[in-house]
Amino acid sequence: MTEPVLDVRGLRICFGSHEAVKGLSFAIHARETLALVGESGSGKSATALSILRLIEREGGAITAGEMLFGGDGTVRDLRNLGDGELTKLRGCDISMVFQEPMTSLNPVMKIGDQVAEVFIRHQKLDRAAALKAAGGMLEQVRIPDPLRRLGQYPHELSGGLRQRVMIAMALACRPKLLICDEPTTALDVTTQAEILTLIKGLQAEIGMGVLFITHDMGVVAEIADRVVVLKDGEKVEEASADDLFRRPQAPYTRQLMAAAPRLGSGSETRAPGSGTVLEVDRLSTRFGARSGLFKRKREGVLAVKGVSLTVAQGETLGLVGESGCGKSTLARSILRLVEPESGSIRLNGKALTQTSRPALRESRREAQMVFQDPYASLNPRLPVHELITEPARIHGLVSRRDQKDLAAQLVEKVGLERDSIFRFPHQFSGGQRQRLCIARALSAGPKLIIADEAVSALDVSIARQVTDLMLELQRTDGLSFLFISHDIAVVERVSHRIAVMYNGEIVETGPTSQVLNHPVHAYTRQLLSAVPSLRH
């Protein structure tokens, strides 16, 4: 066998006195995809950051081991390279797609300039040529209307589109090694399938090795040649993907496989109660309708087009559709975080459209939202006990004296330790930060939670715990959910009904089993056909 592109030997990583990775070894060859799987906090992302020598910026240190990068006859230990050599490697020979695109993109730079920067820096193109190449990369990763996107800023794109921009930047220089840290977390299943196909195609074309970090076992089955399973910083199993799915050896691997949601496994939800919590009637929202100093009218983009839906007490309505179809805009419009252009919204019988700000604020206590990007939702300067009790304090539900007790109850409810309330957001993994966002939403005692990709950043076992929590809250408190997700298997598990959104419109809705087993609309059938499945 040829020499590996990357050969990691005995890697140890510490954050202060905590050893996050404990003697990890693995190798990746050209045209090979190695999947690194495990729960949040198992050391997956720390390993990826160490390869690019970014771990020091996160407060970590490589205390032992070698990371030999080669594949072209020259072998270098990445651990010993200086800043200049590392700068040449990053983004050119070794590229990485990070888990949270909003924290990786510059919010004040246009998308085109950020993608073009890769070509200017590593291929020495002039700006015009670099922008043309950038447009080509956006088209290659299936971003609709790529030329228009070049002139937009990151906040104008959905989470899924931002992630595709990151993938375009990472693939621009056709690297020898691509590190993907949850690259399809924010993507709907059809786009995910396209991106996985794109990565495999480029891999075959240029001989790229891929380190693929994910909690989605269906994606592992789809893309991986070999799999390394991590638990608490240690390798518990390594095998070919075929062997792992047919004959998992470690008990922890079998636990991960059992927790993975499978489309067709059925719903665990109970019948909802009577009464309507949310009623949306012919809601439309337009972006870019006004601009300039005097707010002159422009036509803008109609992102939500006459949507109507209802959510009953104790019911979960699953909302699925591709990135950029308007799901998140609809969610924000319901709470008037984005002002709708027309239509009506009623929450527990109270009108939210044409409502005064004080009345709207009171109504928002009954409907809380869990956003897609957990890091952007949490103030990095505040400890957890202040962050997650803020909604309760705003609505006068808890005193300063009692907030720590409430915070401790909330973190335990979402599966974190009581003493974590004294830590700060950067001290948690991506999955743990999402659990903090869910705890924060629960603090105000809402009747409805709008969950926008609430479990997308979680590994399968933790996602299972969170959806179990949602189901328990419905049983005990009659809580309702509008559950937005690209993971249709998870949607099936928690939802009484499903609404399918395409190009700003609801194209199909009905009971979960009916929509999944007997889809009527062509787009629904396309979504279902793209869902990755575990091999047996």
Automatic annotation (TrEMBL):
Gene3D superfamilies: P-loop containing nucleotide triphosphate hydrolases. It is found in: Cell inner membrane. It comes from Roseibium litorale. It catalyses: glutathione(out) + ATP + H2O = glutathione(in) + ADP + phosphate + H(+). Belongs to the ABC transporter superfamily. Glutathione importer (TC 3.A.1.5.11) family. Residues 6-257, 278-528 form the ABC transporter domain. InterPro entries: AAA+_ATPase (IPR003593), ABC_transp_ATP-bind (IPR050319), ABC_transporter-like_ATP-bd (IPR003439), ABC_transporter-like_CS (IPR017871), Oligopep_ABC_C (IPR013563), P-loop_NTPase (IPR027417). It comes from the Bacteria. It holds the Pfam family oligo_HPY. The complex is composed of two ATP-binding proteins (GsiA), two transmembrane proteins (GsiC and GsiD) and a solute-binding protein (GsiB). Part of the ABC transporter complex GsiABCD involved in glutathione import. Responsible for energy coupling to the transport system. This is Glutathione import ATP-binding protein GsiA.
